[in-house]
Design goal:
Elements lengths: L1 E11 L5 E11 L3 E5 L6 H8 L7 E6 L2 E2 L8 H5 L2 E5 L10 H10 L5 H14 L15 H13 L5 E5 L7 H18 L2 E6 L2 H7 L2 E6 L2 E6 L10
Parallel strand pairs: 3-8, 3-9, 6-7, 7-8
Antiparallel strand pairs: 1-2, 1-4, 4-5, 9-10
Helix pairs in contact: 3-4, 3-5, 4-5, 5-6
This protein binds adenosine-5'-diphosphate.
Length: 232
Amino acid sequence: MDLINLKNVEKKYKNGVTAIYDLNISLKKGSFTFVIGGSGSGKSTLIKMLYREEKPTKGQIIVGGLNVAKLRNKKVYKLRRKLGIVFQDYRLLPKLTVYENVAFAMEVIGADKDTTRQKVLKALEEVGLKNKVHNYPDQLSGGEQQRVAIARAIVNDPKLLLCDEPTGNLDPDMSMEVMKVLEDINKARGTTIIMATHDKDIVNKMKKQVLSLKEGRLVNFSKKGTYRNESN
Ligand code: ADP
C-alpha cells in the first residue's frame, strides 16, 4: 500500500523559480527513501510540500489518505499528526532537558502524564539516550542532539518521518550513528522514512531506494540505489 502519492506535482515560487517540475512518485508504507541531488535541485521543496509548509502550484499530493494541497488550514493538524520532522539544525529548546524536549511534543497534543512518560522513555531508549534524560542540549554532542530531535519526532508514533539533511552538521561517525537509529526505527516501528541528503557515503552505504532530483526534475528512482555522479 502506498503512503504517499504525487501526481503531476509542480512548484513554482512567487519569484518565478520552478523548484519542482511534473513530479510523479508513489512511496509504499514502511519504505525508506533518500532524496538526493545538488544544492537547489528541489529536495527541501519536496519535503516542505509533504508537510504543507509549501503548496504545489499544480498536481495532487496524497499523504496517508489526506489530499495535502486541498487541506484547509484548520485541518493541517491532521496531516501534522501523521508525521514527524527532523531538520539539519536539531531545533531543540535550549532551556529544556532532553526529557522535556521530547515530552513537549506530547504535551502539545494533550497526552496525560503517564502516557507521556512511557512514550518519551521508549523513544529515548530507541535513540540510545535513556541515560541522558536530565542533560540539557548544550551538554550533548551534535549527534546526540540530533538523536533527541529524532526521539521528539517519533514520540507520537507518526506513520511518516521526514528528514531534511539530518546529518548535514555531523561528522561521519556521528552521521552513521544517526543513520543506524533511523534504520532501526524504520525496521522496528515500520515508520516510512524520507530523507533528503547530500551525503554520498551515507547513501552508498545504506542501500535504500533513491529518488534523485536534478534542477527540479526526477532523473532517477532506483531500489537499493547509490549516489550517481550525474545528480551532483
Ligand atoms: P535543495 O533543497 O535541493 O537545495 P530547494 O528546494 O531548497 O533545493 O530549492 C529549489 C529551488 O527553489 C532553488 O532554485 C531555490 O533557490 C528555490 N527556492 C527555494 N525556496 C524558495 C522560496 N521560498 N522562494 C523562492 N525560491 C525558492
